[in-house]
Amino acid sequence: MEFPALATGGVTPTLPILLVVFVVLALAGAMLLLLALLRRNLLLVGKRRLNPFSPADVQRAADPGLSTRRAGQVPFWQTLYARLALMLLVTGLSGVIVMTLVQLFSS
To answer: Are the C-beta atoms of 16 and 103 separated by less than 8 Å?
Structure first.
């Protein structure tokens, strides 16, 4: 992708499309994890009747023993959703780091 508006001295800066793909993957993974956290917090407020403005309830919500999952279900980090989100996040961030290093040291 070229950015002619940023051209200086006759050189048009370019952005590798692969870098854009890795950034999108990382953002998708992060968004999935944030949505899962938001869902958990909404369930705690709705089902457990926790007040998000009460310090005591905020401490109770941080307790790992307080779960929003039914008994017998696998932990969140072992679900396909969490594994997919982490895979997207790690792949995207690794790609961004590698592409940045390649661009940094290429001449």
So the answer is: yes
